[in-house]
What does this fold into?
Amino acid sequence: MNAITEKLLGMISDWKGAFQGAYNIREDGQCAGRQSSDNIRIENKPDAPGLIIHIAPGTKGETVYIPACVTHSNVDDVVYNEFYVGAEADVEIVAGCGVHSDGEEDARHNGIHSFYLKQGAHVVYKEKHIGTGTGQGLRKIDPITSCVLEADSVLEMDTTQIGGVDRTTRKTVAKVADRAKLVIRERLMTDGEETAKTEFEVDLNGQDSGVDLISRSVARDSSQQEYRSIIRGNNRCTGHSECDAILVGNGKVSAAPELFAGNLDAALIHEAAIGKIAGEQILKLRTLGLTEEEAEEKIIEGFLKG
Amino acid sequence: MLVLENIVWTLPTGGDILKGVNLEIPDGKLTVITGPNGGGKTSLAKIISGVETPTSGHIILNGEDITEFDVTQRARRGIGYAFQQPVRFKGLTVRSLLELAAGESLSEPALCGLLGKVGLCARDYIDREADASLSGGEIKRVEIATLLARRNLSLAVFDEPEAGIDLWSFSGLIDVFQQLKKDSGPSMLIISHQERILQIADNIVVIADGKVRMSGAGGEVLPMLLEGEMSSQCPIHEMKGRDCL
It folds into this structure.
């Protein structure tokens, strides 16, 4: 793999020169390294670019790494990855994407991930996105994530867009069965002229199913963001969504959360707050000796970490 | 020593809040400012910490005129300020706040020590966000702990530290103030109406209607407040029941 890929891997995954366990590294649309483990089998998808990842039932404590990197402009990489997680497995999946461009043309990665969690499976999914490079071409990342959670399964998604991505459209769709839980933590920061659209569509179909969706974002400079979500409570279920955004400079955020209760026992809640950093918060940190700029950075850093 | 010389603070809308306050806060002493609500106590604390800028007058810290210094500069000169109504932060943890106050990473025992002083069980709190999930009393105690975490503090200003704190924690807080005195900690300036805080004061200053009405040694001023003519103007509270407020 090339040096840019190595650098991007360090930013988006736990890369320290090697991965332990199962992994597949995608570089500019090609495989730059792959390894399966006894319990996690990674194969090429026969009908489209991408992978099929089989995680054996009962697999515990393993991590599979599926990062993708685009290292130059004029690349439009589309990948279809399918994850089949066996019953009672408890694993971590580290994905993420880095797009680097020093050229005039755009560089884009479009990762279409499908998760199928069997009964009782538990997955922690971590995904970091970042754009780097000095080229005029736009850095674009457009992930689509589809999740099917069977009974008693749990999917915890932790997604972060660190910065440098000029355009992103993120879509997550999930169907949640009996007693299954979907937990989503999204953190997004845009600056300059960047735009970000994020959309969630969750169907709580199972009895006592649940979703907890928290999106925190910071829109700086002249960047723009759009947040859309719909949670449908089609059974006795609990749904909570929260979208909070901080505006800095001329940042703009549009948020349109939607709830649909199709069952008398569906309990759905939405919270939303958009605004600039409160003056009192900056003042408090300044009384601790921070400058105004340092205080703002710390508040944003904490907000996006939380 | 902090010296306030003829401090005047007028609101942009025209109301006079402080009308020529002259005051000395001696080193190593606990000074309590008390007085009726709306008399200018919190305004004075904000003027000292740099949260507000006086319309006229001078603020001298250890011989240096800091009147034009902003909040950050004053904090770096060793002035600490615990807000009467603490600010909440979505995302910043209690640990982060205390570490920002200390200016360095803190070990778990150090965090436990700080939070223990204000009556919080550290392990339950250090990784919690300092946001709306904390009760008024909890966030108030965290606020006080941020001041205790500060290094090289020369003047600690506490604005009604007892507000919202339960009786048990209040007793602990009195111990903290007394220990700071014993350890030759920073000079302390406490805005309070509480008799137990007034009882441990080295000096008491009474402010009413934007002016210093009385000042002197605690042992001399407190009896006058409790029994003299000032008692009608200056309500002194005793801690009763579980909660102060």
Remarks:
- Chain A has one domain: 3-277.
- The first strand of chain A starts at residue 22 and ends at 27.
- The helical segments of chain A are 3-12, 279-286, 292-305.
